[in-house]
Amino acid sequence: MKFILSYLGQLKGRLAYAMTLKFSAAIFELLLPRILTHIIDEVVPLGQIKLVIYWGLAMIAVAALTAFLNITANRAAVRNAKEVAFQVRQDLFEKTARLSGTRFDLFTLPSLTSRMTSDSYNIQQFAQTLQAMCIRAPFLMLGGIIMMYSMDVVLASILVAIIIPLGLFIFFVSRKGIPLFNIVQEKLDTVVRIMRENITGIRVVKALSKKDYEERRFDQANEEMYRSNTRASTIMALPGPVMNLCLNAGLALVVYVGALRVNAGAMKPGVILGSLTYFNTILMSVMALNRIFIMMSKASASANRIADVLTSPEDQQILSPEECRKPAGDELIRMEQVNFRYQEGSGHTRDGARTLALKDISFAVREGESLGIIGPTGSGKSTILQLLMRFYDVKDGGVFIDGKDVRSFEPDALRRYFGVVFQNDIVFNETLFHNIDFGRGLTTEQVDAAVKDAMAADYVYGLKGGLDFVADIKGANLSGGQKQRLLIARSLAGKPRILILDDSSSALDYQTDARLRKTLSEKYQDSTLIMIAQRVSSIKHLTHILVLKDGECIGYGSHEELMEGCQYYRDICEAQMGAME
Ligand code: ADP
Questions:
Q1: Which pTM does this prediction carry?
Q2: Do 378 and 493 contact (CB within 8 A), yes or no?
C-alpha cells in the first residue's frame, strides 16, 4: 500500500484536482433526492405548473452538473492511474536492465514479464478506483444516512438496520474470496507459461511428436485453473444477488412502512421516494467500498511483487582499485583460476546450478590476438563470455579487461569494449538500421560498412527499403542465415575492441563463413576476437584455442599444438573431417 501511495504522492496536485471534482459531484448527487422530495411534498401541492417546471429544470441542471463533474473527474483519475502504471513500468524496466545475471535468474523471465504487465495493470486499476471512490463512497454513504435521518427517523432506522449486516456480510464474503482469487492468479500463470512454451516451441513440439504430451500437460493446468476459478466464483457470486434481494426487500419495506406512516400523517409521501433513492445510493457506496477492498488486496500483492524487484539489492558494486584483484599480466583479456557456479534455487533446474560451470579456468589474450573456444554443449563456453562482460561476478578467481578487474569498471565503460553476437540473439521489431545501430548513434557509413563486412549487403539491399526494412518480432520475416548476418553486422558496427561471436557462424554456409573469416582477419585486425564455434574450421586459424569439457580446460594452445597434444581436440577434428568427406 505504501508503495502505491508513494507513486500516487508524486502526482499530488493532479490527484487533488480529480478528487475535489469527485467530491463536488458527490455533494450534488446527495442533493438530488432532497430536491425531488421537496418538489413532491412542497411544490406539487401548490398546484402551480410553472413552479413545478422551474424546479424540474433546476433538478435537471444539478443532474447535468453532477454528470459533467463525474466525467471530468473520471478522466483525470484514468490519466493519473495510467501515469502511475507508466512510472512503475519505467522503474521496473530500468531496474531489470541493471539486475545482475544472478538476480535475473532468481526472478526468472516470465515472472519479470508478468510483473511488468499484469501486476502494473492491477496497480493502475486500483489507483483509478481509489481516486474515484475513496472519498466519494464513504461520503455518499454517511451523507445518505444523515439525509435519510433528516427526513424521517423511523424509515431511516429500518433501512440502516438492513444496511449494516448486509455491509458486514459482503465484507466477510470478499475476505474469504480474495485468497481464492490469488490462487486462480497463480494457476493462470502456469497456464500462460505452458501456452508460451508451446507457442514459442511449436516447431520442436510438432517435430518430436510431443503434441499429445503437451496437450495433457496443458489440459491438467487448465483444469486446475478452471476448478479454482469455479471455487472462487461460487463464493464471489454471493454478494451480488444477496445485495439485490436486500435492495428489493428494503424497497418493499420502505413503501409499506412509508405508506403506513403517510396514512397516519407522520410524514409526507415524497419522503418515501427520497428515502428509496438514498437507500439505493448507500448500497451502491457499500458495493464500491467493497470493490476498493478487493482491488486493494490484489494491488498490494502486485505491489509487493514489484517492490521485490525494485528494492532488490544491487549486488554488483563497482569496486575501488584497492578492493580489486591485481592481474599477473596486463593483456586485454585475462582470466585467472576462475571457478564459477550459478546460484542455486535460481528457478533453473539445470545441473549448472549445482555443479561448477567452470573449473580453474585461466587464459590471456593480447590486443589483436584471437581466441577460439570449442567444446560440447553445456561445457561452459557461454559462461566464459558472460563472466568477461560481468553478467555474473566470480567469487573465486579473477576476470580482467585491459589489465583491470572487471568489477572496477562502470557498466557502460565495460560494455563499450564489446561487440557481441550471443547464441539465440534477438532481432528487434525495428528497421534493420536500428537493429544494427542499437542506440549507439552510429553513422550510416559505419552501419553500411558493417553490413558489407557481415556479408549481409546482398540481401539487405535486395529488401524493400534496404536498411529501412522493418524486421518482424524476433526477425520472423528473415531467414536464419539473414538474421545471423544482421546480428554479426550489429557486433561489427563501430569496430569494437573485443569482438565476441558465440556460435554465430552455425547458420552460415561454409562459403560465407570462410569469407567472413577472411574479412575479419583483413579488416578487423585491431579487434581482439573471441569465437565460440562447433566447427574446427571456424577457429583453427585463431591465435589460441581453448578446449572445454564439463567446465574444465582440457586443452589450450594453437591448432597445431592441440593437434599434437590434445587427444580430445584431435578426435573432434577427425570426426568433422570425416563428416565433410
Ligand atoms: P555452453 O555455452 O558450452 O553450451 P553454458 O556456459 O551455457 O554452456 O553452460 C554451462 C553450464 O551452466 C551448463 O550446465 C548449463 O546448464 C549451466 N547454466 C548456464 N546458464 C545457467 C543459468 N543461468 N543458471 C543455472 N545454470 C546455468
A1: 0.74
A2: no
